[in-house]
């Protein structure tokens, strides 16, 4: 039992070194002007393009090792880079440069009767830890977003993509250097030792927030063990509820998109609820459409009566995030029952109601405690880009501060500025 | 070692019971309308007045027990109720009823090119745990603020004031009942068993945030041990920095107020920094004024040269929150040195600059990472009432979500509402 202890000690030493450097960099970044941050982002994009061959070579080594380990095709796809994907990484950094700078923005402003004038302004969070798995592009996306919001970051990539991440990180550091910003603004953990994850979770003195980017087991571990606040969602068990007043063509179009546009994203619909009054009009066309598009349907008795291909749903199905071409379908008596079902089985991520009754949509939105609620639109709009945030580092279901897509604005906090002319408190 | 284990088991059983009741109440409260919440607050105020004799009798028992235990005069003062203080508790509830309801307020609103319309609206946080010490009025203040923001709360009062808190809590429950709101909206822990604090800190499934109201040791324990997010500040080591361009009369007036209006509040100034260029003009009048008002001054060499009564400051003084009529005084070369001193020794709570140079004030405010920064005004304005928030449950120095005075608005979070007419994601 000696080895883990030694590993932990050395992980702590690495965390101390990177943490102290990050804190110093964060102090500089917090007051860096927008032009410098954008220069760094654009220089990093140029460096990514210039280093494309080196990045692809590093990625080829990662891919060879991953194939040797017989990792899954899905993981290999997430890991793989090609010239088009490298170009997309560079464009992503340029897109972040084009976003407005949130730091210093006045969120609210008011004057008190005694003449004191108050401003609530955005400030960076400080240092952000990002723990990700196999996608090498997260190195640039996360690093760029943190930088734009005036934060230093410490990135910890998964072992599969470590060589790729290191090559991308080198380009980011070139960008920082070109803009005269501290190189420690974006640091990559120097190894993929798992003890480094533990050291990050135990480092509130160095990290202001941690963003886990990866599968459910990673997010669950981070949420359970972190002493640092976390921006994350564990699951996206998203619901689509169709009322009898819904336009059927609209409902079909939205359901098809919400379930099948991409099945592996957190905003994909996992359960379809249909109002009892729509049993004769909407249920069969919706279920049949799903089956015809190759979606497995697991339904209650009413749904099973529609088509022999519908499998019986178990209790577990209502609580399952399939992330696959599978959907659970249930007839519910009314809006109240739909809301109660979602509050019971949902994950407070994203839910949509399809209805022509505006008062029902309002009640659905008022009573359900999820980060994102939609009316007559697809759940797959749960995305920072679709919100107009430009880019996102993740989607948060926690209630503190960041909820929903976490873009550059959500990577900031605020402080109060108060302007007087000699006021003292009576 | 058997007894503590048994205590913990029973504490967990109590936490489970109160936590489940609070979650159920929170679901009702989240959608309670403003009128019902205000009815409950006004009925609670009336019940406080009607139960004044019972509350004072309970408080007399608490006071007798506290005197028997020979508790300090300061603690006895915090514990004691009298008819005027009971009336102030009732008025406090009426003031909270008069505040605008933050729930449902639209924080931001925008439309995307595809026609999707987004709203970011305020929602309650859920269930709030409040851990307080001897002041019985916190029962009503905290319970009332949580209720107004649509949150259920679980209150854990200190043993000294337990009888008083129980009597006040009974009146709050009468108010809830009168308004048809769930009685579990405001629950008081049924005993002052210390294991109950531990059970609260370990209950993220029941509590969305914990607010510790009390001394530094309580806050330190909660911050170190809580698995639930915390709204708190550990210290208010607040600074006043006076530049040579400062109007001397204004500086004296503000300093007197910032240090001595009340010395025991978190917004009291603890260190005075004076710009080197003001050594001949401002330092002596400011130090002399403090001494004449009975304030102990611990200074650097320049301050000691002003008056023989000035004691030498040690390194520890720069980092000390005295909460007493004591101040540390130091001459600093310039604005940059003042900022660096504050970032090194401060607690990120509240700092004020007295200057006629607007650009210096702007730099002070931009570079210092504290929740509240003032220009030409007293640090003692660090208070929710003075901010115009009507009331506060505390002041937070954390960066997540709530920072500065935590009023009714800060006891909420938000969700996104998205309105479409059939949009699907390309």
CA-atom Rg of chain A in angstroms: 24 Å
Which CATH-level-2 architecture of the largest domain in chain A?
Answer: 3-Layer(aba) Sandwich
In whole angstroms, the N-to-C terminal distance of chain A is 63 Å
Give the CATH H-level superfamily of the largest domain in chain A. Answer: Aldehyde Dehydrogenase, Chain A, domain 1
In helices, the fraction of residues of chain A equals 40-55%
The two chains with the largest interface, and their residue counts, are: A-B, 61 and 61 residues
Topology, please?
2 copies of one chain form a homodimer.
Chain A: H1 2-30, H2 34-50, H3 52-68, H4 73-79, H5 83-98, E1 106-111, E2 117-124, E3 127-132, H6 138-148, E4 152-156, H7 162-178, E5 186-188, H8 195-201, E6 209-213, H9 216-225, E7 238-242, H10 248-260, E8 269-275, H11 279-292, E9 296-299, H12 301-306, E10 311-312, H13 315-318, E11 326-332, H14 335-345, E12 350-354, H15 358-367, E13 372-377, H16 384-387, E14 395-396, E15 404-405, E16 412-423
Parallel strand pairs in A: 3-4, 3-6, 4-5, 7-8, 7-12, 8-11, 9-10, 9-11, 12-13
Antiparallel strand pairs in A: 1-2, 2-16, 14-15
């Amino acid at each position: 039992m000696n080895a883990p202890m030694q590993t932990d000690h050395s992980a702590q030493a690495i965390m101390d070194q990177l943490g102290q450097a990050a804190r110093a960099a964060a102090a500089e970044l917090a007051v860096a002007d927008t032009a410098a941050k954008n220069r760094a982002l654009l220089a990093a994009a140029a460096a990514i393009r210039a280093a494309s061959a080196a990045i692809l070579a590093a990625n080829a080594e990662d891919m060879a090792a991953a194939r040797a380990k017989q990792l899954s095709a899905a993981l290999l796809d997430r890991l793989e880079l090609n010239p088009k994907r490298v170009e997309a990484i560079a464009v992503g950094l340029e897109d972040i440069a084009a976003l407005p700078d949130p730091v210093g923005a006045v969120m609210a402003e008011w004057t008190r009767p005694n003449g004191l004038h108050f401003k609530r302004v955005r400030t960076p969070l400080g240092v952000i830890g990002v723990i990700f798995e196999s996608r090498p592009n997260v190195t640039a996306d996360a690093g760029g977003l943190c930088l734009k919001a005036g934060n230093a970051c410490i990135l910890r990539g998964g072992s599969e993509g470590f060589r790729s991440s290191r090559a991308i990180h080198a380009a980011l550091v070139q960008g920082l250097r070109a803009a005269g910003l501290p190189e420690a603004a974006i640091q990559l953990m120097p190894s993929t030792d798992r003890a480094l994850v533990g050291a990050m979770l135990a480092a509130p003195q160095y990290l202001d927030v941690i963003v886990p980017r990866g599968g459910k087991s990673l997010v669950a571990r981070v949420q359970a063990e972190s002493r640092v606040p976390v921006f994350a969602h564990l699951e996206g068990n998203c619901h689509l509820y169709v009322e009898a007043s819904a336009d059927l063509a609209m409902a079909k179009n939205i359901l098809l998109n919400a379930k099948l546009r991409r099945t592996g994203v957190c905003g994909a619909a996992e359960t379809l609820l249909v109002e009892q009054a729509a049993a004769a009009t909407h249920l069969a066309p919706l279920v049949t459409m799903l089956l015809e598009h190759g979606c497995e349907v697991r339904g209650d008795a009413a749904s099973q009566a529609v088509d022999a291909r519908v499998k019986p749903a178990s209790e577990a199905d209502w609580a399952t995030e399939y992330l696959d071409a599978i959907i659970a379908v249930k007839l519910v008596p009314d809006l109240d029952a739909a809301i109660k079902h979602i509050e019971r089985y949902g994950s407070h991520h994203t839910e949509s109601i399809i209805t022509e009754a505006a008062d029902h949509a309002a009640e659905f939105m008022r009573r359900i405690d999820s980060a994102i609620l939609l009316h007559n639109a697809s759940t797959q709009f749960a995305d920072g880009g679709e919100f107009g945030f430009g880019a996102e580092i993740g989607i948060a279901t926690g209630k503190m501060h960041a909820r929903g897509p976490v873009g550059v604005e959500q990577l900031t906090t605020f402080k109060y500025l108060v302007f007087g002319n000699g006021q003292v408190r009576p």
